[in-house]
Automatic annotation (TrEMBL):
Membrane-crossing residue ranges in chain numbering: none
Protein name as it appears in the record: 2-dehydropantoate 2-reductase
Task of the protein: Catalyzes the NADPH-dependent reduction of ketopantoate into pantoic acid.
Keywords: NADP, Oxidoreductase, Pantothenate biosynthesis
EC number: 1.1.1.169
Annotated organism of origin: Pseudomonas lutea
Pathway the protein contributes to: Cofactor biosynthesis; (R)-pantothenate biosynthesis; (R)-pantoate from 3-methyl-2-oxobutanoate: step 2/2
Domain of life: Bacteria
Swiss-Prot/TrEMBL catalytic activity: (R)-pantoate + NADP(+) = 2-dehydropantoate + NADPH + H(+)
Pfam families to which the protein is assigned, alphabetical: ApbA (PF02558), ApbA_C (PF08546)
Segments forming domain Ketopantoate reductase C-terminal: 175-286
Amino acid sequence: MCWHILGAGSLGSLWATRLARAGLPACLLLRDDTRLAAYTARGGLTLNENGERHTFAVAAQAVSAAQPIERLLVACKAYDAERAVAAIAHRLTDKADVLLLQNGLGSQEAVAAMLPQARCIFVSSTEGAYRDQDWSVVFAGQGLNWLGDATQSLAPSWLNELEQAGIAHQWTSSILERLWRKLALNCAINPLTVLHQCRNGALQAHAEEVTALCAELGSVLRCCGQAGAAEGLLEQVQQVITATAANYSSMYQDVAQGRRTEISYLLGHVCATARALDCPAPGLNRLRLRLIEELKARGLPSD
Ligand code: NAP
């Protein structure tokens, strides 16, 4: 069965090249005929891993093609996922599996609501990748892909294909807890690195602010039934700050490079959840407003 990959960006290319390397059928779904022509002229997708570059002739088609889709990997940004899936929804078969790779929360539920007939599998990835040029991806950080289905716990039979492709993964019956935990870690670190214009490690000088945010994040998580994701949050945030002291956060990098952030699916989602549940989150709301002001001041979208 073919892996259709919607979004030939960093993670989409990382998955597509590893599937192709293992001889598994994969097909990129590109925006339009212009992107398809550009890809065809380039002749393949390049994976740069440990300094070695290999190009794979991954098949590609425009989203407007007609071939039915049984397995879809959605690798767009959270703010593009719903619109991108809507454009190919009519091509999904009744038995389709849809893997959603988006960071944060909110976009997965929106896509799942649009596709009641499909099995939507949420993925939380700790792998790192970036594009060094068009149609070329650098595998920058080994990690793990947690996969799970919020509605049924049975693992799909195709997980062995990920094994075959060397895509590190783990099936979990608590994918929402994983996604909430990653979201909370992100909210405690990333916005502050943008506001203080610093590397992760410099947040050690803002320990009080980080501690207060973790306390509020913990209470929002407990309010929304994700107490497991709240356990030991501050300790893990401190560990991440220390272990990644020299790094710039993904949100810092997005802002520095003038790219749209996924704020609505990260800090925005936490604040919206707190509001819906009448859970007090004054510090998180202030942080969100400060971040929005900063994005606006830089001329970037604030949603
Ligand atoms: P990315 O490099 O920006 O790639 C997104 C791709 O989606 C782009 O190639 C974009 O096309 C394509 N796209 C958007 N709308 C489309 C549409 N309507 N039809 C077809 N293609 C469309 O993003 P990414 O870094 O791979 O991130 C994807 C998700 O994974 C995000 O939620 C991110 O937070 C998460 N994530 C990323 C990493 C990482 O290391 N990169 C790690 C963990 C999680 P264009 O190039 O034409 O704009």
